[in-house]
Amino acid sequence: MKDVKGHVKARLITGAFLVAVLAAVVGSWMARHQPERRELVILKEVQTLGELRTVRHTYRDVLRCATSREPADWAAPIPGAAGVVRTLTKNDAIVTYLAEVDAGVDLTRAKLVEEASGPVIVLPRAQIYPPRVKVRIEWRNTGLFWRDENLAAAAQREAEAKVTNAAEGSRIIERAESEVRDRLSQLGQKFELRFES
Q: What's the CA gap between 112 and 87, in Å, rounded?
């Protein structure tokens, strides 16, 4: 009788183990083959669009750029020394530039958020990308005691700052977000969408 009870107990344990393994295998298979939620599919589709640059502004202008040296530390306290050093080392240039500034949204950072109203795809705010600027020195006057070999680079930095400020002032961010919203509405799927606060 003892032998039969041990044999039955062993079969019950083996059977329970097999049922547990079978349940784990079936559960794993169902999890992999269950259709994805509609919102997750849409999110993946949005994220695959990557960095979506939707607005481009082009700027063409002329600017005057000047550089000069500062007096050495020992000469700085001498009255008028700073003015003399700046005058003798002043480099002056008139520069034309052509610049493009893009704005858009990095859709790879989109995420799905569960809200009381339901799932919402949340996008990062639009951003202005670094401008692409081509400068050309039209006229140049070098200092008597110093020729600034980096005058074109200084002019480029000045033009970059100028066009970035102009783009920010032209509501390029708002236009980029509006364009992204319009383009995503063309995906053919209805979903709730908003930008991060």
A: 60
Distance CA 121, CA 111 (A): 6
pTM as predicted: 0.68
Nearest Cα residue to 159 out of 54, 58, 56 = 58
Domain boundaries along the sequence of the chain: 1-34, 36-195
Using CA atoms of 131, 132, 136, 141 in order, give the dihedral in degrees to the nearest 10: 40
How far apart CA 178 and CA 167 sit, in angstroms, is 16
C-alpha distances (whole Å) from 146 to each of 90, 93, 135, 141, 143 are 7, 14, 22, 11, 5
Q: What is the pLDDT of residues 96-142, one digit of tens each?
A: 999 999 999 999 999 988 888 878 889 999 999 999 999 999 999 98
> What is the tens place of the pLDDT at every residue in 177-191?
999 999 888 876 677
Rounded-to-integer distance, Cα 135 and Cα 56, Å: 19
